[in-house]
Each structure stands twice: as structure tokens, then as C-alpha cells.
Amino acid sequence: MLKAKCPQHERCDLAALELRLWLFMAVAALAVAGALALGLALARTPGVQDWLPSGPAFFHKALVTHVVFSFQIWLLAMLAAASVQPAAPRWPGFVGFALTICGCLALLLVTLAGWGEASLNNYVPILDHPLYFVGLALCAGGIGGALFRPRTGLGLVASAYAVALLCFALAAFRLPSDLEPAFRHERLFWGGGHVLQFVNTGLVMWAWQRLSGQAQTRLSALAFALLAVGALAALVIEARLDPQGLAWRQAYTQMLWYLLPVPPMLLAGPLLWRLRRSLDWRSLAGLALLASWLVFALGGGAGFALGAGDTRTPSHYHAMIGGVNVALMGLVHVVLLPRLGRVVRSVRLVRWQIGLYGGGQILHALGFYLAGLAGVARKTAGAEQGLDSVFKLVSMGLVGIGGAIAVLGGVLFVGHVLTRLVRHD
Description:
With 425 residues, the chain is mainly α. Helices cover 74% and strands 1% of the residues. Keywords: Membrane, Transmembrane, Transmembrane helix.
């Protein structure tokens, strides 16, 4: 006799399926970004570059999509995965996943076909082609569909994401279409890109809380509330200032300086104090927390002592994103995969993943900062860097060594997690 299946169990099964899909997309985005990074190396190889789509120009086009997948798709798909709850309606999540998949395919199609000109603007670089904009819109809308549903988790972070989307839309509406393309694209993504940093910070704050195993307190609730209020300040900027003006651009920079640092410090400080004796720092959760806090703090400190056009700027944002990433890596292993019954088979391997990625990011960011102090310009390569001293050479050597170590940790993470998502043993 067949037994009737409990509706509660059906909801849990569908929630597990949705979580698995979003996790697969997030980690696959890192894999795609890695493959595009290999394409970047090939694009710099004489002879080989002529066989790539769009020839030597493929370097900048692959760089654009590498950044989009590694900094946008990965993080936002992780936000969608973290927001999956059994009690929430399932269809917005599945529809959102399908839209995001279509958007990712559109981004890859434009890149591999060699269409459009690369625009290396801050936060969201793009290829200037209509299908690329369609792909970005599908990804943004699809992830939004997964977040904006009744009783979804991370509600205040989701509200910050809504503000980011609104800022993108307002910029597209307010900026004249006949502006010089590079200037228009920079201003189009500047405001919303800044607000996305509030989203990323909220995501890492949530990861810290889950990895710590601590219940939410009034202080942590206040930290998330302040984060949401800080993101809402963008609407004041949009209402009062012209997106073509210098004051509008500077207001967003000041928003990050004065409003973004407080929420993570308000959450992490008391959390660290409570855990100083109770948490096993050799555990996976403890190691991920420690690595994330160290890298994140390094990036935050660098953000208040930036130079004008030198490599201290990439030192700041690589460390900030690195701190978010290593916390999310720990979250995947400690919280999200166990929800799916995928327990850690090799604790030692996961420790190596977290240690290599976190340690590599520290060396990478430190090298960039030291090189910036010596005057090495950002967004340059080869002879253009002007490495005319031992200090500059050693500093950029740290950048390369640290980057290679972090990439190795990322490769181990991607391979391990994809294997655990596909296999169930």
C-alpha cells in the first residue's frame, strides 16, 4: 500500500531541491570565472590570442565577464541560497533560478561570440551589447524573484538589494542616451554598485552569525537594521543630486565611508568577545570566521587609506570581497551542505581550502597595498607598471604568490563542493 506523503515533507523536499540548485549555480559561477581567467592568460600568449574570439580584444571581454561571474553571480546566487526556507512559496525561487540561468547563458554567449566593446567601469563592468544588458537584467530579476517572497530569510539584506536595483533603474532613466558611452556606463552602475556593497556586507554578517552558532541579539538586530538604513541613504542621494555631477559621485563614496563600516563592527565585535573562549578556532566554523575577520579587517583598514589611482584600491576591494568569500566557503561546508545531507568527508581537505584561500588573499592584498605605497598604478600590466625598484618587485611578487595560493584554495573549494552536490554517498 502506498503511503500518503505529508505536505510538510513535500515542502522540505522542494526547499532542498531549490537550495541545491542555487548552490550549484553559485559554485558553477566560480568555475566559469576560473575558466575565463584561463582565457585571460591565453589572450596574453602570442600566437594563441589570434585564435580566440575577437582576437587580442578577447582579453578585456573575458575580463569583464570574469568579474561579473566571480563578484556578482557567485555572491548573489549565494544570497538566494541562504534565503531558502521551507515555509516560503517555492515557485518564485524556481522561476528565479530559470531566469538567472538564461541570463548567465546570454552573458557567456556575448562574451564567447566576441560581441560588443568592453567597458571596464567600476562594480559592474559590461560588454556594450544589447544581449549583455538583457543577460544582466535576467540575472538581477531572477535573483530578486528568489528573495522577494513572504517570510524569506535575510529580509533586511533583501531590502538593500531592492534599493540597488532601484538605483540602477533610476540611473538608466535619468542619464541621457547620447552621453559618451564610457561615462554613461560608469555612472549607470556607480550608485547601485555602491549599494550592492551593503548587500555583500549583510550577507557576510549573516554568515558570521550562522558560523558562530549564536542566536540573534538586540545588538545584532540593530546592526542589520543600520545596514538597511544605510542602503536607503542612496535614495536620498538620487532624489537630491544629478547623476552626471561630481557631488553625486562623491556622495556615494562618503556613504560607504561613513555608513557601511558600523554594522559589521557592531556585529563582529561583541560576537568575537563572546566566542573568545567558547569557540574551537581549529574547527571549520572557527577557522572560517577567523580567516574572514582577518581578511575583511585588512580590506576595511585599507579602504580608509587609499591612494589616487594606485594599487591600494584593488588591495582594499580584493580583501573585502576575499573576507566575504571565505566566510561563505565556511557557510557552505558547515551550514548549507549539511542541510542537504552532504556532510564533510575530509575535514583536513576543507581546512586546507579555507587556509589557502584566506592566507592567499592576505598576501595578495598586502602586496597590492605595499606596491601602491611605492606608486605602482592600478589597471596596468607588464612594463606599464614601472617596477623599477626592489621594493616594487617584491611587493608585486607577493601579489602573484598570494593570488596563486588563493586560486588554489578556490579550485579545491569548487571541485569539492560540486562533487558533493552531484554525489550523495
